[in-house]
Amino acid sequence: MDLIGGCRAFVSVSEAGSFTAGAAVARIPQPVASRRIAALERHFGERLFDRSTRRARLTPFGRDVLPSAKRLVRLADTLEHDARRARLRPMRVAVPDTCGVRELAELAAEARPLEVHLEFRIAPPGERAELVRTQEVRAALVAVPADEGAWTVPLGLAGVAAPKARLVHLETLRAGRSGGPRRHVWIQPEDDVPHIRDPLLRARDAVGLPPAQVEVAGSLTEAAAAVFGSTDLLLCSRAQAGELGLHWRPVGEVAPARGFAVAGEDAERLRGLSAAVGRCLGAEA
């Protein structure tokens, strides 16, 4: 039986002194209040009210159990209040700095009808995983190999000038091939992870480029500034290149890609917003 519902009707009727007024206090129809109290009496095996009078008078048994019924109703009200507060508690999510403000705002807006209130913390790959481990965030978009990720973001090389070829081959960046200054490839911190960085560096070595020609930048801003002022190239997604106004092409020797998975105590709730998360990451459909 509905013990809490029965106790709520019992307490309301006892305080109001009548079934009709008590039902109004409990915001339920009078027949419903009567049925709930009758079910409670069957459950206890004793009468709660003396029905031989016009008023709802408590029986001795009813007076004895009323304090406990009031405590149960108060606890139920407290539980419902705490549950509402818990649903409204912001869900902190660690995300890459490659996520755009508009896309994050759209993700947060899409989550609100589901009673999920998102707060975002920008962090590099290693720190996002640590924030989940220390429970400083309730979920994080962690970097994983592309074939292990729920979202995949292909990467290529982008520069100020539009390349003539369909692919950008690292071997074309060797000194003396272009006749101009040596061109660098900048890896942004988000891609300073083994499954992206190491294959690119191996390709660099295989085509004979010096180590400094393909290196990790201190920040995305630093890497983009270097590209804007030169013929250098930025390793990035197609979406990022579009935001920066750069021309993007796939890499000829390797096919780097970001992979993302969601980790943390609220991972499942974030997976329910998969399409919006993918837009934030720049994942291609």
Automatic annotation (TrEMBL):
Q: Specify the HTH lysR-type domain's residue ranges.
A: 1-59
Q: Which Gene3D superfamilies match?
A: Winged helix-like DNA-binding domain superfamily/Winged helix DNA-binding domain (1.10.10.10)
Q: Which GO terms describe its molecular function?
A: DNA-binding transcription factor activity; transcription cis-regulatory region binding
Q: Name the Pfam families for this protein.
A: HTH_1
Q: Which domain of life is it from?
A: Bacteria
Q: List UniProt keywords, sorted A-Z.
A: DNA-binding, Transcription, Transcription regulation
| PANTHER family assigned | HTH-TYPE TRANSCRIPTIONAL REGULATOR (PTHR30126), HTH-TYPE TRANSCRIPTIONAL REGULATOR CYSL (PTHR30126:SF39)
Membership in a protein family: Belongs to the LysR transcriptional regulatory family.
Q: Output this protein's name.
A: DNA-binding transcriptional regulator, LysR family
> Which species does this protein come from?
Amycolatopsis pretoriensis
